[in-house]
């Protein structure tokens, strides 16, 4: 049996629905922040990564999937999205677009030849965003706030934002020299990788997972103490903008990031939920003002972020976040003979085009088996098509929850289904559509349990962004819902 490659995953079933849902949330938030979707190739010329990122990081030296194609070209499967975006920015002369900065986001597979473990795959999916053409510290803060918004909108609570600065090239060089001098006398007590890093990339010693408890490492000089005035001011500005937006963060001097292209702001967002394991960094990013010019483009300041999809989905699972995933279908059509089957084929098509989620039988099951299949698919309604009813231009439709059956004229079937499904949705606003749902929503936005509503204009309750709805007005849609809830609970 052919099996999937090490470190690769099949995303199927409910998990695939969660991925699609997360995709849709990312798209909608990116739109609000006015980022345009960009798609760049999965493979690029090897020199893009080996030159662009620098040759001192593990991601490039040890983990890159390099090969020669049939034309003898040196190709690399992208280990990350930033370098490809920068290549595209230069190649498509986006720097000439007067509407700078260029704000883009992407979502796709990346490849790193790592030792597979929980949270570390060889084929990974990342979404990320980049702002190209702005040196304003407000854009650093925007990228951080956007990342946080995505996690929050998805319902994650247990996250922590760590920020740091590497300073400009001058500060960074001075800091690098200080670190080498500091670690040199003790380096034999560090892991093999750190010994290698001392000359190549001493900053990476700071976030070594193996040596993280070493007192020497804990007491290492901090970047923040080696900043020139300009770099310090810039970092303070980033913090000021984060404070203005109400983004909570901690300054963590050990955040240095795995890629070589960063200067000034760097940040990582960690999952703090129990059970995550050591690979708990959901995403990270920072400013990379030198990369465009390193790749022969005009000097362009940039900042960005990327998040691992797999880790994000794991955090949602561990935090048991309830997501509005559709796991049921509206209607299952059952039939016995060939004429009824043809009608099932016709009716399914009609109803699907009218917007309903409809399925029917494709494997020759008998009626009993078809009922079981309808249950497996969580069909809200079933119709057993029978020739006699169809001759009378009607069908018998059964509500699978209440088990009530009604005879409906085919002329009004669409209208009937519409009404019935809408009234089922009215029972609960939280999107879970479950029996015994405990949701106490006062509004339609899914903000849950009377907590502060942050949904903005999508909310019907008129409570406006960031405020708890206290409206008691009978004319207000939210007041209606409240009454319905109260009535239902009081009954
Ligand atoms: P990175 O820290 O290398 O940054 O990757 C970002 C995120 O991708 C990580 O925090 C993690 O969630 C996920 N990730 C990385 N490697 C793996 C793996 N082997 N398996 C599963 N998930 C993984 C970058 O890639 C930069 N391009 C971010 C950036 C954008 N900086 C500026 N702009």
Features:
16 helices, elongated, alpha+beta, five-stranded mixed β-sheet, 19% strand, eight-stranded mixed β-sheet, 36% helix, binds histidyl-adenosine monophosphate, 491 residues
Helical/strand content category: alpha+beta
C-alpha termini separation: 58 Å
Poorly predicted tracts of residues = 431-491
Oligomer: single chain
Strand content: 15-25%
Number of helices: 16
Hetero groups: histidyl-adenosine monophosphate
Q: What percent of the residues sit in helical stretches (DSSP H or I)?
A: 25-40%
Biggest sheet strand order reads: 1-5-6-11-10-9-7-8
Q: What can be said about the biggest beta sheet?
A: 8 strands, mixed
Total count of strands: 16
Looking at the structure, what is the overall shape? elongated
Q: What's the overall average pLDDT, rounded?
A: 87
Return Rg in Å: 28 Å
Strands, helices and their partners?
Elements: H1 13-32, E1 36-37, E2 43-45, H2 46-52, H3 58-61, E3 65-68, E4 74-77, H4 82-91, E5 102-111, E6 123-132, H5 137-154, E7 159-165, H6 169-183, H7 192-200, H8 215-218, H9 229-245, E8 250-251, E9 263-271, E10 281-287, H10 291-294, E11 302-308, H11 309-318, E12 329-334, H12 338-353, E13 358-360, H13 367-376, E14 379-384, H14 387-391, E15 394-399, E16 405-409, H15 413-426, H16 477-490
Parallel strand pairs: 1-5, 7-8, 12-13, 12-14
Antiparallel strand pairs: 2-4, 3-4, 5-6, 6-11, 7-9, 9-10, 10-11, 14-15, 15-16
Helix pairs in contact: 1-5, 5-9
The structure holds histidyl-adenosine monophosphate.
């Amino acid at each position: 049996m052919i099996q999937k490659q090490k470190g690769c995953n099949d995303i199927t079933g409910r998990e695939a629905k969660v991925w699609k849902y997360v995709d849709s949330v990312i798209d909608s938030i990116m739109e609000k922040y006015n980022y345009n979707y960009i798609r760049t190739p999965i493979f690029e010329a090897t020199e893009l990564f080996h030159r662009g990122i620098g040759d001192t990081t593990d991601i490039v030296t040890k983990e890159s999937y390099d090969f020669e194609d049939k034309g003898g070209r040196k190709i690399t499967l992208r280990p990350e999205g930033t370098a490809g975006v920068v290549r595209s920015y230069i190649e498509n002369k986006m720097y000439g677009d007067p509407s700078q900065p260029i704000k883009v986001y992407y979502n796709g597979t990346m490849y790193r030849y790592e030792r597979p473990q929980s949270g570390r795959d060889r084929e990974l999916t990342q979404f990320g965003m980049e702002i190209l053409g702005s040196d304003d510290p407000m854009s650093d803060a925007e990228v951080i706030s956007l990342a946080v918004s995505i996690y929050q909108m998805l319902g994650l609570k247990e996250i922590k934002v760590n920020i740091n600065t590497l300073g400009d090239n001058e500060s960074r060089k001075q800091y690098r020299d200080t670190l080498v001098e500091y670690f040199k006398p003790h380096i034999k007590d560090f892991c093999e990788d750190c010994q290698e890093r001392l000359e190549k990339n001493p900053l990476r010693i700071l976030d070594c997972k193996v040596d993280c408890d070493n007192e020497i490492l804990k007491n290492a000089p901090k970047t923040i103490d080696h900043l020139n005035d300009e770099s310090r001011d810039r970092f303070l500005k980033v913090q000021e903008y984060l404070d203005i937006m109400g983004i909570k963060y901690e300054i963590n001097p050990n955040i240095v990031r795995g890629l070589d292209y960063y200067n000034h702001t760097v940040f990582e967002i960690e999952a703090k939920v129990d059970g995550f394991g050591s690979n708990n960094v959901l995403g990270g990013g920072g400013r990379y003002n030198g990369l465009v010019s390193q790749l022969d483009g005009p000097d362009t300041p940039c900042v960005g972020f990327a998040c691992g999809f797999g880790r994000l989905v794991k955090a949602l699972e561990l935090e048991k976040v309830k997501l509005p995933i559709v796991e049921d279908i509206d209607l299952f059509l059952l039939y016995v003979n060939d004429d009824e089957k043809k009608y099932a084929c016709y009716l399914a098509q009609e109803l699907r085009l009218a917007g309903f989620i409809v399925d029917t039988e494709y494997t020759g099951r008998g009626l009993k088996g078809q009922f079981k299949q309808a249950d497996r698919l969580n069909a809200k309604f079933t119709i057993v098509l029978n020739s006699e009813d169809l001759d009378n231009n009607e069908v018998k439709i059964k509500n699978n929850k209440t088990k009530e059956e009604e005879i409906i004229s085919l002329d009004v079937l669409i209208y009937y289904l519409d009404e019935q499904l809408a009234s089922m949705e009215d029972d609960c606003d939280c999107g879970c559509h479950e029996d015994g749902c405990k949701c106490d929503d006062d509004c339609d936005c899914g903000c849950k349990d009377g907590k502060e509503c942050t949904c903005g204009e999508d909310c019907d309750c008129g409570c406006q962004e960031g405020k708890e709805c206290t409206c008691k007005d009978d004319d207000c849609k939210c007041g209606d819902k409240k009454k319905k809830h109260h009535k239902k609970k009081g009954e």
